[in-house]
Amino acid sequence: MASLVGSRVERKEDKRFLTGKGRYTADINLANQTYAIFVRSPHARASIKKLNIDKALKSSGVVSILTGKEIADDKIGGLIAGWAIRSEDGTEMKCPGNPPLAKDNVNFVGDPVAVVIAESLAEAKEAAEKVEVDYKVLKAVTSTADAMNGDTIHEGIDKNLCFDWLLGDRQKVKEAFDKADKVISIDIINNRLIPNAMEPRACVADYNAASEEITLYTTSQNPHLSRLIMSAFGNVAPEHKLRVVAPDVGGGFGSKINVYNEDIVCSWAAKKINRAIKWVAERSESFLTDIHGRDHVTHAELAVTKDGKFLGFKNETIANLGAYARVFGTVTPTYLFGPCATGVYEIPAAYTNVKAVYTNTAPVDAYRGAGRPEATYTIERLVEKASMELGIDKTELRIKNFPTAFPFKQTLVHTVDSGDYVAGMEKAKQMADYKGFEARRKESEAKGKLRGIGVTSYFEACGIAPSAAVMSLGCGVGLWESAEVRFNPTGQVTVYTGSHSHGQSHQTTFAQIAADELGVPIENIDIVHGDTDKGTFGMGTYGSRSLAVGGIAIVNACKKIVEKGKRVTAKMLEANPEDVEFKDGEFIVSKSNKKKTIGEVAFACYLPGVRDEMKSPLPEGDEPGLKETSFYDPSNFSFPAGTHIAEVEIDPETGHVKLEKYTACDDFGRIINPMVVEGQVHGGLAQGIGQALYENAEYDETGQLMTGSYMDYTMPRADNFPEFNIGYTCTHATTNPLGVKGCGEAGAIAAPPTVMNAVIDALGGQEVTMPATAEKVWKACKNLKKSNAKAA
Amino acid sequence: MGKISLEVNGRKFEKEAPDNTLLSTFLREHLQLTGTHIGCDTSQCGACVVHVDGNSLKSCTALAADVNGSKVTTIEGLETNGKMHPMQEAFKKLHGLQCGFCTPGMVMSAVDLLQKNKKPSDTEIRDWLEGNICRCTGYQNIVAAVKEASTKM
Hints:
- The complex is a heterodimer of chains A (792) and B (153).
- Chain A folds into three domains: 14-138 and 195-289, Aldehyde Oxidoreductase, domain 3; 419-474 and 637-792, 2-Layer Sandwich (Aldehyde Oxidoreductase, domain 4); 481-632, Aldehyde oxidase/xanthine dehydrogenase, molybdopterin binding domain (Aldehyde Oxidoreductase, domain 4), CATH 3.30.365.
- Helices cover 28% and strands 23% of the residues of chain A.
- Chain A has 19 helices and 28 strands.
- In chain A, helix 9 (372-390) runs parallel beside helix 18 and helix 17 packs across helix 18.
- The model of chain A has no long low-confidence stretch (mean pLDDT 96).
- By secondary structure, chain B is an alpha+beta fold.
- Chain B has two domains: 2-77, Beta-grasp domain (Ubiquitin-like (UB roll), Roll); 86-152, [2Fe-2S]-binding domain (DNA polymerase, domain 1, Orthogonal Bundle).
- Chain B is built from five helices and five strands, in the order E-E-H-E-E-E-H-H-H-H.
- Chain B has a five-stranded mixed beta sheet with strand order 2-1-5-3-4, sandwiched between helices.
- At the A-B interface, helix 1 and helix 17 of A face helix 2, helix 3, helix 4 and helix 5 of B.
């Protein structure tokens, strides 16, 4: 039987999506449901003097209006930060309370203060307009760079500082810098982004008074984790009385990791009114209240010798957390950022210092790449600048500082098990025709255009898991993953995973893995996820962990099935279990023609009876049935890496940047389904290029979001991209049995510096901030003209 | 309230609906055709594209009353006798979708492109799809799928 792992298998999930039969949360309607509309703060920072619902209550169709007072009275808990980060001085991070409905203070535009529940959506909207809130407006803090000098947002949190964190050794870095021939320094901004999954957040909460169970359908990347948080911290219901279902989810990119205010409020309220409640975000609500991403202000320095060896690295960053610290809010700018900031280089001394600040803006949390795009942008912009200042070819300078052997003990935290960075670089150069660039630059010049080339070599730490590691770094839970494989009596297999697909193709790739492990046709395998009533538990999908953690749990559970199958076969065929081999779905007694198919063995496992000459196939100690579970906790992260090369052409008359070529050469270890991986790369690149050239979330000084719709926030469109040229090198991960590494975030991690390095190359080394809009680039082109004229 | 008569996917419907009911709402809430998706509130994303009398239309830009008496095709009506349309087949074959949320609008829009331009170039495809936002695919495989479908239609 040919192996399915490695094949371009078409997706099992596609038909329902292509024929309109997907079932997203907003498609769910329950009998007798009500509709919720949230009353949100129009101010970035204010205290609530008075909240009057009398008029609204009289509005037609209103079922209930609940406010921060009721939620406090019912002791419903607030939203939480999932990682406890300690400051350099050893003190614990400082987090404000974040009630699901604000009672006393609001801290960003969109912070909810009340929920209006009515018989119809129109009636809920009308009544919400009649809720009167008297605010005392306070001065908002919105700037990342100046947040520490602003008014104190949360009582008791001085300088709006959540933590002042250090990774690395300042003294060693000082010594390294003292020895340097040259110090390259850079000031950069990692622009704030809005994830914008195409499906707006939504939830439908239902209460069953007979079983006293709440069911919440919600747009979540991790239903089990959501249930845990809602139960343990939200106090909504005990876990066994709370079912969380994340059905088809239309993209996440990190924005659907968090338990949100609406999840808690609707679940709690459904029980209170004993009716189902449906809430669907309008896109403008998504812009205001989904978590945002990035938003760093960084000063970084690289100490180098004159022949280009890196000696030391400093990184001083202010990271904006927004109004509250959420689930991955505090780890994103620390452990997901700092360790990767030294990039793919051997740098003997390094430190990263992060001051995480609160502002009156939407909470900032993990968005595709989470910390690693910011890290890669920092080091790769620095290295590119170093190559310009040292006059060393940008690819040679990188190769000179690549690790020479693996495992590579990276400067700050990680031990990278496998990789071949030189091979990746060489292949990328070939794919991009790096040698031919100068000729292309001349061609562009002849047309009056500026052409630039940019390179990025990256690695990232993903497959976010090892419980021992993450818990020692402050994570509130272990990040293992579970799988349960049920072999049905009539031969089909149902695999339950705690991981979740919202575009990642689990139904196909996980089935490919199980099909290979069990020798069962892929058509007979179903992957089930997204429902806390189906499957044991799970941590969900983020940090490119589905395959490298969740996929391995499936492999391990399948292996247990095979082990039991061997014992049963031995009993059935009166052989030694050690003599039974398993191959392509058959258990074969070696050196004999005796065999059983896995289907026959499974069937036998369910029929352990004894009658006439029929004997039980179950060896002593084995229970009937064929179902196995695995909780897999890897020993390390996985470390994809690669080199990307971009070429841009700029029209100096308009400042328009045209991305002419984009080459990505990645090492994701073993690839399960090349078609799916290609899709993940394309999508990551689009978001990374979006950050570099188009996207930016901007607040004004009063805390109003200036980019709160698709008319104002530039979402990349089909005509913004060239055809991507993608390729791979392959070194297997040594820390998991499939040899796989994550692929979901690489594009978003590598693309921003790659594109910006190309833009800045075209502009003769002039710094431009992301996104490199026509206006900024046009101004830089004018400066370039001036300085060229002077030089002439 | 007014009476809305539409032929949707070959079936005639007559329903009472408030005058301000958008076509997208009418399809989703009154006819339970939830394949048509709502991704924004400014008619930018294109997840709600359907065909009205043969032409693609963002169904959130029209009142149901505006198109009273029309023939509407939604994503649910694109199959014939249980067989997917060549555009649907091409999207599947070339991985033109991931989360599936923008897909119905994307497919309906692409089908209309091929009605109007049988052999579009890559640039023409990318230009045509300017009104459909996808956050997952980076568009490359969507463009390839439309191209592939153009050889089959």
